[in-house]
Amino acid sequence: MRFSKLRLTGFKSFVDPTDLIIADGLTGVVGPNGCGKSNLLEALRWVMGENRPTAMRGGGMEDVIFAGAATRPARNFAEVALHIDNSDRLAPAGFNDSDQLEIVRRITRDVGSAYKAGGKDVRARDVQMLFADASTGAHSPALVRQGQIAELINAKPKNRRRILEEAAGISGLYQRRHEAELKLNAAEANLARVDDVIEQLA
Ligand code: ATP
């Protein structure tokens, strides 16, 4: 599963639709301070399901929407599309059983985020799981923010272990275990209620 293109529309400083072609080999992004290099990395993290505004250097998730400039009004939505070369069929067949897969995330003011995969509406969880299982998720150690190396060196062992688990592609399993535990707790609570009702009827 290889990323081939990132398209940003109204995302942070990228007000007009902008394509970043990710060719084979190494892609370097160079430019003066403040031109939007980190915004590109954040767009990648965001389309993979990042939900912490702080990871986007914002106070709320809507801060990723173009906020306006001296000559241009603010936008009402932001959209990031990630094109994936899926010729190795690593994406689950339910997503799109073809060589190319497009994941789109759009956030609209006062409405929130919506995701599409291969043109179909999908849940945030499905997109997060897809990338977590492929070890490229929003929290992937492959994406290194400014200052993150220092954070890593000073990190507690538990946090460092989380980074290793993400790299090993097992963080999706933790999420599934957590969801299974919640379902189990709910089922146990329901069973206890059924016992109460049976007792009252007896
Ligand atoms: P440096 O080299 O200094 O790290 P950079 O190239 O990584 O800079 P970014 O931090 O990606 O630059 O981009 C910062 C720019 O993005 C700033 O000019 C900021 O005003 C702009 N920006 C961030 N959020 C928004 C937004 N919601 N709307 C409009 N512009 C934004």
TrEMBL record:
Top-rank taxon, per record: Bacteria
Localization terms from the record: Cytoplasm
First and last residue of the signal peptide: none
Binding site for ATP: P32, N33, G34, C35, G36, K37, S38, N39
Coiled-coil intervals, chain numbering: 170-202
Purpose: Required for chromosome condensation and partitioning.
Description of how the protein assembles with itself and partners: Homodimer.
This protein's domain notes: Contains large globular domains required for ATP hydrolysis at each terminus and a third globular domain forming a flexible hinge near the middle of the molecule. These domains are separated by coiled-coil structures.
Annotated family: Belongs to the SMC family.
Name of protein: Chromosome partition protein Smc
Included range, full protein: 1 to 202 of 1151
